[in-house]
Amino acid sequence: GFFAVEAAARASVDTQAASVAQLLEQVGAVRKWEANQVQAFVVAGTFDTGAQDASMHLLEQAGFGDAFLGTPAAERVTVAGKAGRRGATADYIFTQPAGSATNPHILSTAGFAHYPVTCELELDPAKVAAAQSARVAEQPAREPESAKPAPPTAVAASPASQPAPRAQASNHSLVI
Question: Is 21 helix (H, G, I), strand (E, B) or coil?
Answer without folding.
Answer: helix
